[in-house]
Amino acid sequence: MNTDFEPVIGLEVHVQLNTKTKIFCGCSTKFGLLPNTSICPVCLGYPGVLPVMNEEVVRSAVKVCLMMDFMINTYSRMDRKNYFYPDLPKGYQISQFDNPIGVKGKLSIDTDEGKKEIGITRIHIEEDAGKLIHGDGVSYVDFNRTGVPLLEIVSEPDIRSSKEAYLYLKKLKQILEYTKISDCNMEEGSLRCDANVSIRPKGQAQFGTKTEIKNLNSFKFVQKALDYEIERQMNVLKEGGTISQETRLFDSGTGKTKTMRSKEEAHDYHYFPEPDLLPIMVSEGMIKEATFSLPEKPDDKCARFEKQYGLPAYDASVLTADPSTADYYEECAKFCSNYKMISNWMMGEWLRELNERSVSAVDSPVLAKDLAGLLNMIENGKISGKIAKEIFPEMVKTGKTAEQIVQEKGLTVISDTGAIETMIKEVLGKNEKSVQDYKNGKKGVLGFLIGQVMKASKGKADPKKVNELMEKILS
Amino acid sequence: MSDSKQIVNHVEKLALLEISPEEKDRFSEQIGKILKFVEKLNELDTTKIKPTSHILPVQNVTRRDSPVPSISRENVIKLAPEANNEFYIVPPVIQEFQEA
Ligand SMILES: [Zn+2]
To answer: What's the ipTM?
Structure first.
């Protein structure tokens, strides 16, 4: 990146709430229903219908406000945003304009230079539009998604690189997942992102002309699209050109952004207060109620994991990345007191199994208490770590406990002194030269000899005991 | 061009309408009258009055988040100007690009 310029980035994120019904009617919000089967006169905008606000939408919005330190407006109101598009049956979207539910929120991200706070301008409640499917010479409309509740979260232009944008989105998603108000599933469109980006000479206070990038379906795409767009704007400026304010679409196939042919006068929405809906007055009582049901914030949980379980910062951040992984860890920790070993196993074998199956911790094929059981067997010297690594995939496959598998396969550690001594003597007999080396002061061969014993026992000998006895016999 | 004529042209575009020149003349005259009336209202000093969007002291009218059956697709979709068994059909909507 050219150091003479710095990018200025703001992100707009749409989050689909996981309510059972739509925002203003009782139609189901279930994903994947047959097209146009979750519709009614209200969400289709027939004349004479009366939309009524879903109480859960307000509750969810207040919770998110509290999780991100928003100032909650005690008076907020729904407005009509007027425009024509075939996915919008009413000819207007019910949204919030000058009285959004919350303003001035913030969240902090961990950059290479330390913690950085990103301001959030506003958060407002609105309804989703339908879905267009493009066919041969016509377009098809599915109105199932029409009226599904959304929160739009608009950041301040505080973001200075594509990496920071990525970190902001990751953090935002983490908080929303903790709050449990959305599925946050980008593939199903329950989390969507648009980016505003401009560049300016370093040290200049004034912003450059910005472009808006749409069609960003994954966090990786956001980062790629921003990288491309920053580079493009820099080249335009270097060649003496000017940036035109426009909307651009990201093409994930080429990794480029392209101009969307913009209609002049497109942004004239004639906002006005929605006459069919009454104001939302968030009371002290509502805030109190929401506060009671708030989860521990991800940053707080991460700090607590470090302290309570004595984990390194890295472990704590991986284990608290999403709430179900954190819950799983704490469940394990109830049964096994070697907290670092739980962490190692979860970040290693366990996470690998989950990723292979692309499931989250809630659907872990091994119960937390059973993973703890396996680790306790290592702790108590019943099995070696190596054997445990063989047992774990069996647990995943069969759903059996470690205890069961060990018994069935006779995998218990050999810790019988006599048996181990016999094995050691056998190994020493076969490796007289190494024994001689050891006696001549080459202590390094000890590791080799112990390895040989472990191999002879097929990994079943208790390594601590082998170590102990070997040194005794050799001395 | 007069103010009201400009408004008619603007709304024509926004609302995706096609208005004939005769209609435009008629609408501009009507809108002109409406604007004059609003100007009359503007004479009233409202600096001390809070903007009002609802006159009744009622707020927070909400409903429970419990699903109710939707209506049958066959019955609604047949009201559309064009549809098949599953979807409403509209003129093609394609995102147009310019290579740049
Ligand atoms: Zn409905």
So the answer is: 0.86
